[in-house]
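User: Just a sanity check before I run the rest of the batch. Below are the structure tokens for the first item. I only need the designed sequence back.
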């Protein structure tokens, strides 16, 4: 914990790296605006909190030790990304001025963001690899320090993803046409398929 600023730097770099969570936040901001993207961002942050807690339990060690458990979760996550990608590729051009664009249920975005983060085994291994470098399992203050690190990571995720969403929101006026709607769906779908393929090809 003496190197807490270093943890913040490492966490920021990890969050800044484009991945399914970032793509989800960008897509929501393009479709539903900056305010409409917040439920999804909070869902991804909550998913990180849950993943970190699971990583500190036997589940994280099971994934690290068992090739079968890792493979099962890997294909579950890749399958979900493939589903999202195909769904977007087959969808009609998104209309930014459509009424449903502003009535997307917040709980659905929140749940999608949480599921996206929880279905990625790489996020579990991030916490397995990073946390032991900063706190010892036998520390008398382990629970408090663990909560501080996870809360800091989740807060950084909300800030960085909000910045991504703000950038995407500023591009809405350039994409507010049928061609732009097609471009958003196709680019998002292809990106989800790419991340799914990378996850499927990954190893422990």
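Assistant: Here's the designed sequence for the first item:
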């Amino acid at each position: 914990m003496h190197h807490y600023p270093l943890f913040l730097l490492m966490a920021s770099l990890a969050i800044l790296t484009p991945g399914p969570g970032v793509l989800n936040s960008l897509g929501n901001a393009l479709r539903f605006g900056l305010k409409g993207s917040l439920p999804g961002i909070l869902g991804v942050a909550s998913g990180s909190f849950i993943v970190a807690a699971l990583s500190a339990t036997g589940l994280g060690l099971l994934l690290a030790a068992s090739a079968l458990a890792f493979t099962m979760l890997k294909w579950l996550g890749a399958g979900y990304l493939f589903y999202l990608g195909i769904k977007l590729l087959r969808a009609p051009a998104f209309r930014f001025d459509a009424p449903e664009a502003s009535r997307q249920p917040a709980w659905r975005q929140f749940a999608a963001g949480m599921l996206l983060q929880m279905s990625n085994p790489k996020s579990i291994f991030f916490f397995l690899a990073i946390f032991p470098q900063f706190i010892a399992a036998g520390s008398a203050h382990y629970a408090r320090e663990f909560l501080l690190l996870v809360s800091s990571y989740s807060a950084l995720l909300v800030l960085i993803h909000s910045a991504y969403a703000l950038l995407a929101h500023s591009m809405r006026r350039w994409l507010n046409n049928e061609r732009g709607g097609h471009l958003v769906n196709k680019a998002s779908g292809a990106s989800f398929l790419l991340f799914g393929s990378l996850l499927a090809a990954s190893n422990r």
